[in-house]
Amino acid sequence: MVRKRIMSVDFGHARIGLALSDESQIIASPLENLLTHGKNPADVFATFFEKLIHEKGYIIERIVVGLPLLMSGKDSSITTDARKFVDELRLKISVPIELFDERLTSVQADRLLMLADYTRKRRASLVDRVSATLLLQSWLDKRKSAI
What we know:
By secondary structure, the chain is an alpha/beta fold. It has 4 helices and 6 strands, in the order ββββαβαβαα. Helices cover about 50% and strands about 20% of the residues.
């Protein structure tokens, strides 16, 4: 029996961080960042997603997109953009898409990369995919504890 995977997205205008669960939906692993190069992020992601499905043969059960709320829990301009990104994706992809609170994942990712002694430039290139991985692992752990 083929198990389905969960994918997470750390939304950004210039870079989109990605992570994917294993087939058991226990462990999150980073994928590459998507660079938008000024294009519509939803179009860039949808193109990558279709390629991933066709070339790798992955079956994605759900996409979890980080919702970048302010510490107060209120929306910011990037929160509004992330919601718009999800609305556009839902028109392009038939997989269920869920928003998940991502407060502090980027800060946590940057701290982990600093502890690993990466340069600032290298951290900048990795932080989005590490954030997506932390986001997905949090989602997987929360779902597991609810069962």
